[in-house]
Structures are given as structure tokens and as C-alpha cells.
Write a structure and sequence with these properties.
- The structure is a single chain.
- By secondary structure, this protein is an alpha/beta fold.
- The chain has one domain (8-64, 127-350): Alpha-Beta Barrel (TIM Barrel), CATH 3.20.20.210.
- Helices cover 42% and strands 13% of the residues.
- Strands 1-6-7-8-9-10-11 form a seven-stranded parallel β-sheet.
- α5 (146-154) crosses α6 (156-165), α5 crosses α7 and α12 packs parallel to α13.
- The longest helix has 25 residues, at 167-191.
């Protein structure tokens, strides 16, 4: 096996700059349960040891420290209360209230709801979060995913109805949420000038079969605000990592026009997300990230099926560069460690340029 000549950060930077890295970078997304299970199987004592063992080019995230008003246990600064919900093989923290559900107008919200501010955070420690092993890895900082928060604040069903029935309320709340995200990202960038590689600008626009919103709704409510975040990142020399699950083919050209640099997660079993077509139509404009199927192949496929899918992704998405191998969303605990190991070992063995 050839000896690696690049650090994980250099590998990512080469792909983003459309240069040829020594090999295809490999990223990792996994639940706590899946990660613990994998670490136990490998016999490693830390995530860093796991990344090194599997040659994973993991992205390091930096964030400020919350110093605002004291919060009750399992409640966040937006007033959302959470509880842990078990789904058999793992558990997720789910929002169990809707702090803005009782309000009918913007005026009612303004009169009694307190929006979080960046003054509730201490940014001075961010520079110390990129030390030790972190130095050789790419760094992600700032970004936005406000409708995810809005859906919790209003209740998911009401949030979707608001887009049609109360658009002025949605605009008001999204301005508040994006406003915080913008200022937060700006302050993070200021702490690590020239060191942040990626900013996460996301919204889940797609379901399994089609878009969750009409293109018109996406263009009215989301893209103009997301473009402000994208422009902020680019002005700081930071690349934009765009995440949206599901069947989003119809809106990809709009997101590329807005300036995204990386498209994740390539959920290729959804209609319109076929890998060859995505590579042909968009591969020259955006880096493709993910594409290791997390609905069948990783959790339920054989080791041989995992190996075959890695080779397909390297051939189809990696051809000519512009691809980062990763699972298409968090690996779940139901996925056998043998399958996860096969993904990274096959990628490492066959991803050299």
C-alpha cells in the first residue's frame, strides 16, 4: 500500500480546490451507539484512534461555550424541552414541546418571547479547540439550519402549514433564527481566521420520494437567507457544506447557483438522485460527499455488498475527482461493525490516485 503523503486536511483541501489528492478522502458520521459499538469491536480507546485505524479524514467541529441564562436540564436556549426516545437499537433526543405554538401573530411573539443572542456565548476558547490531533484535520465552524429549529418551536405540522397560512410569521422567525446564525458564524470565523475549512449550511428539503416543499417555497423562504450564510463563508475563505436528505434533484441547480461547494449526502436510492446522473450533471460544479447507503447496504447488506458499493462510488462519483466517501447520514447501531470496517478498508485500498 502506498504511504500517505497528505494530512486529512490537505486531502480535503485538494478535493475542494479540484486538485488530485493522494487518495479519496473518507469522512465519518455515526450515532453514539454505533460509534461505541465500532470502537469496542476494533479494541480502540478513543475516537481519534478509531479514525487513524480506519484512515478516516474526519472533520473537526468548533463551537462557542454557552454562558447565557441558566437552563433547566434537557432544555435549550430556545425553550425547547427534550427527552430521550429509544428506537430499539439506539435513542435520539426528541423535542417534546413547542414554545411558539400558542402564538398567532408576530406581535404576540415580540411581546413575550426572548430570542437568543450571541452575547449568551463565549467565543474566546474556540482557538484552543484546534490542538493536538485536531491540527491535521479539516475544521468546520458556524453555519445554519433554522427551519429545523422553527419546526420544533411551532410543532412540525403547524410549521409546514405556516408556510401557506402565516407566511409573515415564518419570515419573521426565520429572520431571527438566520440572524443569530449569521452573527454566531461571523464571530467563530473571527476567532480562527484562515483555519476554518467548512461551514455547514443545511435544511432537509427532501423526503424519500420527492421534495418536502415546493421549489417556489424553497426559493422564497430559504435560499435568499441561505445565500447570506454562503456569502459570509466565502468572504472568509470558507467552503460551504450543504446537507439535505432525500430526493432533492429539482433544487440542486438553485443551490449550486447560490454558491454551495459540497453536496451531501447523496441518498441515491431516492428518485432523481442516481449517482451517474448526478456526477454527469453536477460533478464539475460541486464536490459530492457521502453516497454509502445507510438504508440497506450498511445496516443490512453483506460485507461483499458493502465492498461492491464502495467500488461503484469510487468509479462513478470519484471519476475525475470531486468525491469524498462517507455514509449518507449517521451510521446506526444496527449496522454491523464488519460492514463499517469493510467500507473504510475498501475505500482505503482502492481510493489511491
Amino acid at each position: 500500500m502506498a504511504r500517505e503523503s497528505m494530512t486529512p486536511r490537505e486531502r480535503w483541501q485538494a478535493v475542494l480546490a479540484r486538485r488530485t489528492p493522494d487518495r479519496v478522502p473518507m469522512d465519518y458520521w455515526g450515532t453514539v451507539e454505533a460509534t461505541d459499538k465500532l470502537m469496542h469491536h476494533l479494541g480502540v480507546g478513543s475516537r481519534w484512534e478509531m479514525y487513524e485505524r480506519l484512515h478516516i479524514d474526519k472533520v473537526v467541529s468548533v463551537a462557542p461555550r454557552y454562558v447565557g441564562p441558566k437552563l433547566p436540564r434537557l432544555q435549550d436556549m430556545y425553550g425547547r424541552r427534550f427527552q430521550w426516545v429509544s428506537y430499539g437499537s439506539g435513542r435520539y433526543r426528541e423535542c417534546v414541546n413547542a414554545p411558539l405554538a400558542r402564538y398567532a401573530t408576530v406581535e404576540e411573539i415580540e411581546a413575550s418571547y426572548i430570542w437568543p443572542t450571541v452575547e449568551w456565548f463565549d467565543y474566546s476558547g474556540i482557538r484552543y479547540q484546534v490542538r493536538g490531533n485536531c491540527k491535521q484535520y479539516p475544521v468546520q465552524g458556524g453555519g445554519s439550519e433554522p427551519f429545523l429549529i422553527y419546526a420544533d418551536l411551532r410543532g412540525r405540522e403547524q410549521a409546514y402549514m405556516d408556510l401557506v397560512l402565516q407566511p409573515e410569521l415564518v419570515h419573521y422567525c426565520l429572520d431571527k433564527l438566520f440572524g443569530f446564525a449569521y452573527q454566531n458564524t461571523q464571530r467563530i470565523f473571527e476567532q480562527l481566521p484562515g483555519r476554518i475549512d467548512l461551514s455547514y449550511v443545511a435544511e432537509d428539503f427532501g423526503g424519500q420520494e420527492s421534495l418536502l416543499f415546493s421549489p417556489a417555497v424553497i426559493r422564497e423562504f430559504f435560499i435568499p437567507r441561505m445565500k447570506r450564510m454562503i456569502d459570509l463563508a466565502h468572504d472568509a475563505g470558507v467552503h460551504v457544506f450543504f446537507h439535505s436528505d432525500g430526493a432533492i434533484r429539482k433544487i440542486i441547480p438553485d443551490m449550486i447557483a447560490a454558491g454551495i461547494d459540497i453536496l451531501n449526502p447523496i441518498q441515491w436510492r431516492s428518485p432523481g438522485m442516481e449517482r451517474a446522473a448526478l456526477k454527469q450533471d453536477f460533478g464539475a460544479q460541486v464536490v459530492l460527499h457521502g453516497a454509502m447507503d445507510n438504508q440497506y447496504t450498511l445496516p443490512f447488506g453483506s460485507v461483499q455488498e458493502v465492498e461492491a458499493e464502495v467500488l461503484e462510488n469510487l468509479e462513478v462519483l470519484g471519476k475525475g475527482g470531486g468525491y469524498i466517501l462517507a455514509p449518507c447520514h449517521n451510521i446506526q447501531a444496527v449496522s454491523p461493525p464488519e460492514n463499517i470496517i469493510a467500507m473504510y478498508e475498501t475505500g482505503y485500498a482502492n481510493g489511491w490516485n
